[in-house]
Specification:
By secondary structure, this protein is α/β, with parallel strands linked by helices. It folds into 4 domains: 120 residues, NAD(P)-binding Rossmann-like Domain (Rossmann fold, 3-Layer(aba) Sandwich), CATH 3.40.50.720; 83 residues, Alpha-Beta Plaits (2-Layer Sandwich), CATH 3.30.70.1450; 124 residues, NAD(P)-binding Rossmann-like Domain (Rossmann fold), CATH 3.40.50.720; 82 residues, Regulator of K+ conductance, C-terminal domain (Alpha-Beta Plaits, 2-Layer Sandwich). 28% of the residues lie in helices and 25% in strands. A 6-stranded parallel sheet has the order 3-2-1-4-5-6, with helices on both faces. The longest helix is centred in the first third of the chain and has 14 residues. The relative contact order is 0.10.
C-alpha cells in the first residue's frame, strides 16, 4: 500500500516509521529542509519538500497511485486543504489532524466528507479522553474498552507487598472473568505469559476481563485505590484545557479541579472558558507554589505541559510531595521506556493514540482496531474471525498460540462476552481480542482473518509454512 504523509512532526514520523516497518511504500511531504535532511538518515521513505505549491507537492509524491493520504501538519487549515486537493486529484482515503473543535462541530456548514476527510483526528482530545478514563478508574494504570464496552483491558502494577510476588501464574484462582495476557518488566522485557512464569515486584500486569469484574484479582496484585475527589492539572495547553472541560461535563462527579498555567494571558482565556475549574497562575516546577496549593492532598496529578522533561520532573516531584497518583503526557519514545522504572503511575502518548486510530486504514483484513501498549512494543488487536480461518472449530488448548507470541484474551459471540479457556473453540464471525507484539500482527491476520498471503497454516502450533 502506498501512503503519503504531509507533516514530519512527532505524529507524522511515528506513522512513517510504523508503516515502513509494515512494508508499506511511504512518501513524506515536509516544508522544513532541516527536518528532511534529518529524516533522510532515519526513514527509508521518499521525502518531498513542500514549498507552498500544494498540488505540485502531491503530484511529485505520486498522489495518482497512492492508497492513503494523511495530513498532520501543525495547521488545521492546511491539513483540510491538503485533503480536499488530494480527493480532487485521486480516489484515495484521507485522514487529517484537526484540533479546532469548530471544524468537527455539527454547526459547520461543510461536513468532513465535503471537506474531503474520511477520518478527522484530534490528538489532544484523544489524550484528554484517555486521561479522563484513568481518573474515573484510579485503581488501574491503563484501561481500554473493546467489543462495544463488554470486554476491557487493564494494567495493574504489582506492589512489592502483593501476595502474588514470586508466585507462578498457576497460583491464580481459576476464574471465567479474566485472563492475564501480558507482563511488562521494569527492565523493558515483555512476557507472553505461560503457567510457569512468575510475578515480580513492579511488574505491569495486563489483564483482559469482562467489564465490571476482577475485584478479587486487583486486591491480590495491589492495594485498592480510593476514588478520585481532587485533580490538579499542570499545563494549560490544549490537553489541559480539553481535560478540564471533560471533567467538568461529568454529572455528579464531585471532583475538585485545579489547573496551573504559567502564562497570565493563557490563564485569562482559560478562566473565561472553564466554569468549574480553579485556574491558577504559577510555575508548575515551583515547590513552594505546589505546597501552598496543598499538592499533598491531591488524588490525581496530571502533567501535560507540552514538555516531556517537565512533565516527568513535575510528576516525580509531585509524588515526593504527597500526590496520590500521577499521569503524564509523553511524546518522545525514548522517555516512554522509563515510565515504569520511574514508578510514574500512568502515561499517555498522543502519537501512539493517533497511530492506533489510523491503523485500520492500512489493513485489508477484518481487523477492527489496533491499540498500542508500552511505547508500541505490544498491541491489542480486535478483529472478526473469517470463515476462511484455519483455526475455526478447534480447541484453544490445541492451538498453542502463546508459543507464537499470540494470546486470545476475549471473545464476543452473539453479544456475549467470553473469557476463553482451553476447551473453548473459535467460530466464524467471533469478535476476538488478541494480545500480541507488532511483528506478529500479520500472523494474526493470516490465522484469524483469512488474509491471503504466501503462507499457509500447517496444522501444528508452529503455524505457517511456505506454499
Amino acid at each position: 500500500m502506498k501512503v503519503i504523509i504531509a507533516g514530519a512532526g512527532d505524529i507524522g514520523t511515528e506513522l512513517a516509521e510504523r508503516l515502513i516497518a509494515d512494508d508499506h511504500d511511504v512518501v513524506v511531504l515536509e516544508k522544513d529542509s532541516e527536518k528532511i535532511t534529518s529524516l533522510s538518515n532515519k526513514l527509508d521513505a521518499m521525502l518531498v519538500q513542500e514549498t507552498g505549491q500544494r498540488i505540485a507537492a502531491l503530484v511529485d509524491g505520486g498522489i495518482e497511485d497512492a492508497d492513503v493520504f494523511i495530513a498532520v501538519t501543525d495547521s488545521d487549515e492546511l491539513n483540510i486543504m491538503f485533503c480536499m486537493i488530494a480527493k480532487k486529484l485521486a480516489k484515495i482515503k484521507t485522514a487529517a489532524r484537526v484540533r479546532n473543535p469548530e471544524y468537527s462541530s455539527s454547526n459547520m456548514m461543510l461536513t468532513s466528507e465535503q471537506l474531503g476527510i474520511d477520518i478527522m483526528i484530534d490528538p489532544e482530545r484523544l489524550a484528554a479522553l484517555e486521561i479522563a478514563k484513568l481518573i474515573k478508574n484510579p485503581d488501574v494504570n491503563e484501561i481500554e474498552y473493546f467489543a462495544g464496552g463488554k470486554i476491557e483491558l487493564i494494567a495493574l502494577r504489582a506492589d512489592k507487598d502483593s501476595e502474588l510476588i514470586n508466585q507462578p501464574l498457576t497460583a491464580l484462582p481459576i476464574s471465567p472473568d479474566y485472563f492475564v495476557v501480558g507482563i511488562f518488566r521494569e527492565n523493558g522485557e515483555i512476557i507472553i505469559p505461560k503457567g510457569e512464569d512468575r510475578f515480580m515486584s513492579n511488574d505491569m500486569i495486563y489483564v483482559i476481563k469482562r467489564t465490571g469484574t476482577l475485584t478479587e484479582f486487583s486486591s491480590m496484585v495491589r492495594s485498592e485505590k480510593k476514588r478520585v475527589k481532587s485533580v490538579m492539572i499542570l499545563g494549560g495547553g490544549k490537553i489541559g484545557f480539553k481535560l478540564a472541560k471533560i471533567l467538568e461535563s461529568y454529572k455528579k462527579n464531585g471532583i475538585t479541579i485545579k489547573l496551573v498555567e504559567k502564562s497570565p494571558e493563557k490563564c485569562r482565556i482559560l478562566s473565561e472558558n472553564l466554569n468549574k475549574t480553579l485556574v491558577l497562575n504559577g510555575d508548575v516546577a515551583n515547590i513552594n507554589f505546589l505546597k501552598e496549593e496543598n499538592i499533598e492532598n491531591v488524588d490525581m496529578l496530571v502533567s501535560v505541559t507540552g514538555s516531556d522533561e517537565l512533565n516527568i520532573l513535575t510528576s516525580i516531584l509531585g509524588k515526593k510531595l504527597g500526590a496520590s497518583k500521577t499521569i503524564v503526557e509523553v511524546n518522545k519514545p525514548d522517555y516512554e521506556v522509563l515510565m515504569q522504572a520511574l514508578e510514574i503511575d500512568s502515561y499517555v502518548s498522543p502519537r501512539l493514540l493517533v497511530a492506533g486510530r489510523l491503523s485500520k486504514l492500512f489493513r485489508r483484513s477484518s481487523i477492527i482496531s489496533e491499540t498500542y501498549l508500552k511505547d508500541g512494543r505490544a498491541e491489542i488487536v480486535e478483529l472478526i474471525v473469517s470463515k476462511d480461518s484455519p483455526l475455526i472449530h478447534q480447541y484453544m488448548k490445541e492451538l498453542r498460540l502463546s508459543a507464537q507470541g499470540i494470546i486470545v484474551g476475549g471473545i464476543l459471540r452473539k453479544g456475549k462476552a467470553i473469557i476463553p479457556r482451553g476447551n473453548d473453540v473459535i467460530l466464524p464471525d467471533d469478535h476476538l481480542i488478541v494480545f500480541t507484539q507488532p511483528q506478529n500482527v500479520k500472523q494474526v491476520e493470516r490465522l484469524f482473518c483469512g488474509y491471503k498471503s504466501a503462507l499457509k497454516y500447517d496444522g501444528t502450533y508452529g503455524g505457517m509454512i511456505p506454499n
